[in-house]
Specification:
Elements lengths: L3 H9 L4 H14 L4 H13 L3 H14 L4 H13 L4 H14 L4 H13 L3 H14 L10
């Protein structure tokens, strides 16, 4: 049944991240385009700084769900955070931002990517948008 492995994986995430990862991969055998499982897998690989593995699943997310901002956001984050292709990462994050301008996390990732690319003014603008969307305009980074 779709979603079962994904949900059980969530239950294991804090106690056994490897088990959660295995369960999310099992979910993909049942439901190959499951965006939540794909994004969760990418997130776990990002935590581990395993950018190559993360990219594989992020690309699958875009191929399966190109009309959803989250797929472009995770691909952009992987490409830029992992220095795999910062330019393409920025394009993916910009697309995600156009699709979901209210998502503060996208603005944060975009600010980091712009900073890596030496685009200081763009990075400053995105940081300000992140702070505004986070409900924190004081300039103090939220927890």
């Amino acid at each position: 049944m779709p979603e079962v492995h994904y949900i059980v994986g969530l239950m294991f995430l804090n106690s056994d991240a490897d088990k959660a990862l295995d369960l999310w991969k099992q979910e993909l055998r049942v439901s190959p385009g499951n965006l939540r499982a794909l994004v969760s897998i990418v997130g776990e690989y990002l935590k581990r700084s395993d950018f190559q593995s993360a990219q594989q699943f992020a690309e699958q997310a875009v191929n399966s769900n190109s009309d959803h901002y989250a797929s472009h956001a995770v691909l952009g984050q992987v490409l830029s955070d992992g220095n795999l292709d910062v330019g393409r990462g920025i394009k993916e994050l910009e697309l995600a931002e156009r699709m979901a301008p209210w998502q503060a996390e996208i603005r944060f990732s975009l600010a980091k990517a712009y900073a890596k690319a030496g685009r200081k003014e763009d990075a400053t603008r995105e940081r300000a948008e992140f702070m505004k969307l986070s409900g924190n305009s004081s300039g103090v980074k939220p927890n």
